[in-house]
Amino acid sequence: MASFFGDTLGAYMLPRAVLELLQQPGGQHQAGVCPDSGFAWLLSGSQLYIWRYREGKEARLRVLTLPRPPAPSQPPSVALIAHGSAAGGAAAGSSSSGLGLGVAGPAPAAAPAAADGPLSVAVCDADGHLTVWLDAHHLAAPAEQQLLAPAAGAAARQPRVPLVAAFAAARLDLGSGPAFLAALSASDGSLHLVQVGSQGIFPKQLWAPPAAPERPGLVGALGGLLSRAYTDAFDPSARYLRKQPSPRPAARLHLGAVAGGGGSHYRLLVLTAESVDCWAISTGLRPSEALQWSFLNGLVRTHDSRRTAAVAPLQLTAGGGAAAASGGSSGGTGTGAGSQAAAGGALQSGTVTGAANLDFAVSGPHVAVWMVETVRGGGGPGVARETQQHVVQMLELLPEGGPGVCGGVHDVLEGYAEHAEASGSPVRRLLFSPASHSCLLARWQQSQPQSQPQQQQQQQQLDSGYGLLQGTFGGGGGASRTCRALWSWNALSGATTLLSEDPDTAAIGAGGADGAVGGDAAGRWVVLSATYGVVEIAAAAATPGEAAAAPAAAPAAAGLDPAAAASHLLDAVLNQAAAIAAAGGNLQPLVAGLERRLGALGALTTTASQTATIARYSTQLLDLLPKQWAGGAAAAAAAAAAAAAAAPGGAGGGGASGGVAVSVAEQLADKESRHALLLQCLAMSGVLHALAPSVLRTLIENSEKLAVVVALHRLQVHQRDTAAGAGGGGSPAAAAAALLSRLVSEAGQESSAREYEVLSPAEIFYARPSASVGHFVAALGRAADGVAAQAAGGLGQPGDSGLASLRSAVRELGVLVAVAVNAAVCRRDLLAGSPLHLSAQQVAARLGLPDWLSGGDTRAALGRLASAIQTVRPAPSPAPALELSHSLFGVTDVLLTCFASALAATREPGLRAALLADYRATRSRCADDLLADALAEMRQLATGAGAAVATSTSTTTTTSQQQGDLHGAAPPPELLIWQVESLCRAHHCHGHLFEVCEALAAADPAGQCGRLHTHMATLQPEEGAAGGAESQTLAGYVYGRLLGDGRPADLLDLPPQFRAGVTTFLQSQPPAAASDLLATHLLRTSAFADGAAVLHQSVSAAAAAGGGGSGDKGGKGAAQSQAEQAAAEAAGAGSLGGYRRLLSVARLAARAGGAPQVEAAALLQLRLLGLQARLGLPAGGAPMQPAVLLDEALAAAAAVSRAGGAAASAASAPAKEAAVAAVEVLALMPAAERAAHASKWQLAWKAVFDADAWDDVAAARGAAARGGGAAGEEGAVLAATAVCRAAAACGGTDALGFGASVVDSAPLDQVARWLRAWAIGGAAGGGNGNGGRGGGSPAVAARPPDAAAERRVEAVMGALGLGVDGARARGGDAAVVGAGSALVGGGGSEVAGVAGGALDMIVD
To answer: Could you tell me if 1347 and 1392 are in contact, meaning their C-beta atoms sit under 8 angstroms apart?
Structure first.
């Protein structure tokens, strides 16, 4: 499976102690891995940890202590030699160089070591001090030997120069127990051999460079020249072989048994900067050491004239270093296409001017040498520059004993790039697999540690984005080395593949495939990483197409469980964090790389399986068993395996601890500490707020549940101590302790699982808080149901023997609820307010679902407890007991808070609506009982105080003071009423809050009268209400409550800040119920225009409701509903006088408010009311609509035509008034409405004409003229006619065409023609000189008038003209008001007296 490390064959987690050491910030560690023997090791300080890596995190650790700790700046070399019964005495071993990065390779022709064979360990420090354990399985004292001695005066120099340059060891078969052979290269170039066995340590110097090389003379120099000339001519390859070893110190040693040598012949390869030296070593009876050859492999690269280097322009790599990608072959194949693609451009030719060896790998007869070459040229014409390229040179150890350079393979590392080094030099390691013709290249870069302030300020920029290395490997001077590259190189194609940029890689090794024997079968790389553990990778050759491939995901194949690895990593981090926190240190360096490590293990991905990794770890941390305490949460995840693990051994033995007895208090305290450290480490590393909301919810809930369990345990301990002190099993303390123990046992029993079966139910409850808290809440609900059922069965009446115990039970259940909820809420507030900023409300809003504390199960249990308390409450009585009121309040407070939180978190509309309905029903039911108890308590207190005052024998002064305290002081703060007020306000119980404030105001009028107003001004609408009455504010509720209770004065007397709200409320009410109150409120608030409009609208509404009047011929009055009649009576106070007063006030308010339109409308309505009064309609009726009033007037005027003689004369007065009123009603109508009644316009004028005997009028007019009377007498005769009065009534309107903005003679001409025709026709009709309703036809008008007709025409036209002139002369609204009445002398006084003189103020 392709993964972050290529094809993963196996992955094994590190033991906990090793992982903790690797997580230490700034730690100086060395590590190594021996694939063929299966061992891995870690050197930390003076402690050397050895384990079989395939046993994983449960591996048994062997801890060896060095007698003298190595210097941090000069790490020692470590070699592990595994012994077994291999054929031929072959040996397998591994070693690390003095630079401290362990690299192991397979020994040639070596069989795997026996599984339980001896294991020799050799540690050689930089001063040449050798420490040896011949068998590390037996913890015996090590053997020591000083191999090198510093030169005179060197010990005093600072800094000290390491004496050891390289170290290697191999197994030695002496037949008398474990033994090994070691080689050592000193910094002065000398070479030493050490034989170690049961007989002791025997060092021997192989070679030492001469102190001062001899200078040849003239003859010697000439001979040398001749010899080199001969060699170049006849044996060119001999110039690269020397007979003397290199005088330089070795960069790397390889010591291995020669195949077929019987276990006594060894080959020692020494790599220096310029050459590869080969020594033949024999042990046994005739030991010997001889140099076979010294091969100048670097000179071969430099002098090969057939090859030119391909140089690409320098490119800045991702790490900031310069790299050149090039390709070529030692066989002269030139530049390959793969290298051109890697370089990203055309390559230019250059010349190699020098080469230096960096590292080498030996596998059987194959030797791979990692070199760096200096290339000059290639920069274009006239440009000279030097670049570096990395090369792997393949050598072969020929059977005849000499070295050979392999041809036909690529040697330049195409695509390999190195970062620029800020300080120090990188450490490189090379592994080679002949089976796949591939190499593994690793490089560690030295980095200087930052100061503490810099670490805090630059925590996000450490290590160029890699994070601070938490297990540093090698280095000196306090610096650490970070793995920067892990590359795979194909020797056949030259392509390189970047396998990993994991900075936690600590060591690499090469091993053979499982079941294979011999180094030639090496087919796997083994990588030791602080993040992934030990990972075995197939040594597959890279292909050119894979060179640019990016790394994939984490190594999830071949046994590596990323979730388990992440849990193991978090265990190690928390253990280290606990130690650092206890010492008062800074956690930032420890957690700086945690986000990268967890991300590499897939714990921060978005997939469902990986997202829950940290959530599962948090739950495992909560549910740790005491026996798993030493193993951390990762051990809890595999409890069964931990119980079956091997017994611990050694001083540093790991694995699952047998455990010691841990008290519940200690267990819970440690869980709280570790979980708090988990949250702190996640927050400081930047992981916490990058987690999914579901994971954050689990972290929060686990912390809250842990706090609940801790609080319940403390309560249980306290109850047990109290019960023991009481000394009786029947005491209340003993009953409370028994109740809590029973609930804890029930919850623990329900929380049990297979791994918890060995514990008692109570122990399970405290050992598994993640599950037990929910079961505890459910058990509490069941206990409440039991109490309610028992009370309902006959023990709920006052005086029953069991009632006291039931009340005590529900009180104790309420105490448990208070303790648990208070602990959870306090922890929730702590997480939200701490630097973690972990808000449960925000997480719930993101998820759209309530949390455990406000979930359905918790609400159901609390609801059952509230019902149980209500069931056992005493029945109402004159002196009720209030013993359960506070318990009910506490449970109700928690229950309603849970409902509010759930409502705020729920987004689904259907669930939200159901939840809101349940919330409102619950708060109403519980608040009713709480309010009743609170008011009863206040009454009981007042009754007791009153009785005390009545029976007091104190002085008058004292009695008066007591009465003042009783009636004028606020209730004591400990009363339930104050708590109920807070509860009602928090949960929008508007009706109950109103009652509370009323009761407080009644008890203390001076101090509490404004309490309701304060709540009205500050209480916001209920969140989540979907509309309707339930969504109103408290102020809106109070408005409706005062109006509904018949308290309009209190409504209008609310403070000024509520005026706008009262106005809006009254406007929303039906006009029949609130129009007068609204008008009064508006007038009181100086909103005159609005008040006038409301008054006018109320009269109009009354007219519309009762418009049929008493004479409605269509039955409208009979059809009028009772509601409309009530509205009419409420609006007009049951009389026209009331309407007049309202309209007069409306006109006055409109004039004061500057509303001319409203004023004109009120004036119009007043004139219509005046007409209705003149018609003699019932005074107790409602105002009539203009159309109805017109019909009534026409009906009354019709009596003129039907009557005759004396009857007509008797009926002429009211009929005349009706006719004039009909014309005036039509004149007051709007033009459009008047047009709709056009036929009635002619009828009205005809009734006006018929109202007078025109022959008599003409005679009286003539008599007045002949008698020489004043002109006023003639005018008085005409003014008394209905025609004159009707024409005058049209003044101020456009009915006759001469209104304020209308000049049109057509309407007046039409009326004049009608009157003329009717006057002419009156001669033919006889009688009273009127022509009847049918007169006035065109034929009659065209007939020449006789003398009588002419007199009638003159009288009619005179009356019409007099009326029109009078109306025009008066002008304006004030002149028109009652103009018709003024013409008849005495009618004006009636209109002027409307509204008890109020109209006089308007009319002036």
So the answer is: no
